[in-house]
Amino acid sequence: MFQKGLAGAEIWNNRTSISTTDDENNPWNVEYSSSVTPFVPMDSMDTRHHYYRFIQGLDVTDFLQQRSLKIKNSFPTVKNWKHFIGAGSDAHGSFNYSNTEMTYGILGTINDNANGKISTLAYCPEGMGHHGRNILKALKNGHTILSDGPIINLGISTDGADSTNEIFIGQDTVLTPQQLINSRLVVDSYITPEFGNLTQITLTGITEDSIFTLELPLVAHQVFDLQSVLGNLFGYIPDNHYFMIRASLRTTKNYGILSTIYRRPYDRFFSITNPIWIKTPMLTSADDNTIPEEIITRPNPVYDRFLVNLPGNKNYYVKIFDMNGRLLLEEPYSNAGVDVRKLPSGLYLATFINDKNIFRKKIIVSH
Q: For the chain, first and last CA: distance in Å?
């Protein structure tokens, strides 16, 4: 898979191919059985459904992504080390369910995923360009998502302004210490009533050796402190090595009284982004298990204000997050301590940062 000059590859699972009839007026008989009546759509929970077949291919791609991360981290100058995912119909016929292999226009079937719905959507803010040049550029650079209806997008804002992203899907970046401290992870979801309601948003992280997932709140637009959400995703922040993150969502459309028309009680729809590759700086990091003994948070639980002994006590910044990674408080740390009177009672993660160190401490607020 890593041969010189290889520009792309198709992962195909031929063991569970789907077939349809060759009747152009009956495209719904997707299981091609003489014993079934017209209008029998494939159940979206069936293991042969397009999404589950795509996930099988994604498992293979993730293995290749891990291998490419290992190569890039071992040989920093290597080129063409990223993998982008794409999807679309591989039908061996026209869109009206006819078939190029029909005999005299009478016999024949459409095989493979002719009735698959997953499409690749390219981000082209300047339009498609002359002869689709911008579309090809977006596909080449991985500025794409996969969807069968709803849309999810992922970006990183490095300047602290959540309204714009400086890093997009498909890109790789090396963050400076200050960018890691200031950056926000922005996750946007777009759905319309025909695709139902949000039921799952997942952030996936991949390193050389492991794959991690983090379930996010079901909110259309959400912004996270990058450093905190990476810590929640991986359990630590991988430093001085490339890793990758991507986002996915699922919606569910319940048909209710229309179930008899759709011949099913509900449908599920999906969207997944291409990854963003990130390399963070080498920083000294400590959590509750490794934090030096001289660093003490007092009092804990805290009612109104707490103090922390920090090494050197020079130019530290404090950020407080809830356990979902949402940034609730951000300010320079001072000898007066941190005022938490505006925070509801509960468990929080306090992070103290300067240009050399990152220290994290769990605190309990009890009013």
A: 58
